[in-house]
Automatic annotation (TrEMBL):
Protein name, entry field: [FeFe] hydrogenase H-cluster radical SAM maturase HydE
Region (Disordered): 1-26
Alphabetized Pfam families for the sequence: Radical_SAM (PF04055)
UniProt gene name: hydE
Species annotation: Xiamenia xianingshaonis
GO molecular function, one term: 4 iron, 4 sulfur cluster binding
């Protein structure tokens, strides 16, 4: 039986924004939703678990604070039914900030000559896992740019070492696009999960955010390969990225419905000072929260983090994210000497409750808010495909 819910932090904490935020979307006048009963769409989502592209667009464009509060209440109930009051913690290890790619929004893109580059040794990674294990973490997320130095055999060896050292833990990789055989080799070595955000499901919008060497079809192929290989797969997108419209977001939601991932990570776009998007406003925390609520109703069994990016634009983002339907947090296990260099966007939160050194405080805060923090891998309730 679900325990009583805490006050709806998503609505009771006004967001003290630390960066300028894009308040809303690039709206086309003919796409506004005035006069439409949007609550009807929320109810439809709750029962049918999907909406048409037009309905999604209308819901996103016409959202109001009151509608958001009612959506969050439904989203919390759906989350509690699937997972109870558990909030799962994952230890994030930012392995390397070298990247061969040049995504236009990214602070560690290869053409940013001002980035201080680093890559961790396997021994350093294992030491992070040991530290995280002692703090009660049972999932390690190895994240990095697409660094050619970390060739397939190096990653296989690293995954094997972690698997040997921590047989009871989940190993999650977030290391970009690879051929099918490489994904298969990582899986055989002991990797359980893979995170690969699609970022935007609209081809034209994808082309605005990425160099021509990158392809949205390739990204989607990777995601479906990962699913077929038996990974628990995570995907997701940025909210408020330059040029994004409600229609684009509707396509993101439709794509996620089709993929049916085990994990979904979304966060507001935040500009980086050494990219072409340096003067663009950040995405809205409120819209990100609204979409977390929508995702929870659409895919109630997915694991959904309250992301660092959300917490970076809104000091209460972590608790507001949970109150909107999220159920995962990712404390940072990266050694302090590297953490500041994994500089994806301006003002990325790396200290305070984001850091593993404060995990006891984080647990206390969660428990005081009525959540449980199990000492467990926290596997997804979405069924894994057979390889
Ligand atoms: S978003 Fe990822 S793939 Fe793109 S440049 Fe940044 S680290 Fe590399």
């Amino acid at each position: 039986m679900p325990t009583p819910q805490p006050a709806d932090a998503a609505s009771t904490f006004p967001p003290p924004a630390v960066v300028e935020q894009r308040d809303g979307l690039d709206r086309a006048p003919h796409e506004t939703a005035r006069g439409v009963d949007l609550w009807r769409f929320v109810k439809k989502l709750q029962t049918g678990r999907t909406l048409s592209e037009d309905e999604w667009t209308a819901l996103i464009e016409g959202r109001t604070p009151d509608l958001a509060d009612r959506l969050f209440a439904q989203a919390r109930a759906a989350r509690d039914e699937a997972y109870g009051r558990a909030v799962y913690l994952r230890g994030l290890i930012e392995l390397t900030n070298f990247c061969k790619n040049d995504c236009l929004y990214c602070g560690i893109r290869k053409s940013n000559r001002q980035a201080r580059r680093y890559r961790m040794s396997v021994d350093e990674v294992l030491a992070c896992c040991t530290q995280g294990y002692a703090q009660g973490l049972r999932t390690f997320v190895l994240q990095g740019g697409e660094d050619p130095w970390f060739a397939q055999d190096k990653i296989v060896a690293m995954v094997r070492s972690i698997r040997r050292q921590h047989p009871d833990c989940a190993i999650t990789l977030s290391l970009g696009e690879w051929p099918h055989d490489a994904y298969a080799a990582f899986r055989a070595a002991g990797a359980d999960r893979f995170l690969l955000r699609h970022e935007t499901a609209d081809d034209g919008h994808y082309a605005m955010l990425h160099p021509t060497s990158m392809s949205p079809d390739r990204r989607k192929t990777c995601l479906f390969d990962l699913r077929r290989l038996g990974y628990q797969v995570g995907s997701g997108f940025m909210v408020g990225s330059p040029g994004q419209t409600a229609r684009h977001l509707a396509r993101d939601l439709a794509f996620l419905k089709e993929l049916n991932p085990h994990m979904i990570g979304i966060g507001p776009f935040v500009p980086h000072r050494h990219t072409a998007f340096r003067d663009e406003p950040a995405g809205s925390a409120d819209l990100t929260l609204f979409l977390i609520g929508c995702l929870r109703l659409m895919l109630p069994r997915a694991l959904i983090p309250a992301t660092t990016a959300l917490n970076s634009v809104d000091a209460q983002g972590r608790m507001r994210g949970l109150a909107a339907g999220a159920n995962v947090l990712m404390p940072n296990l990266t050694p302090p000497q590297y953490r500041g260099s994994y500089d994806l966007y301006n003002g990325k939160a790396t200290s305070g409750l984001e850091g593993v050194e404060n995990i006891a405080r984080l647990r206390r805060q969660l428990e005081e808010a009525g959540y449980q923090v199990p000492l467990a891998r926290g596997d997804s309730a979405v069924a894994v495909e057979r390889a």
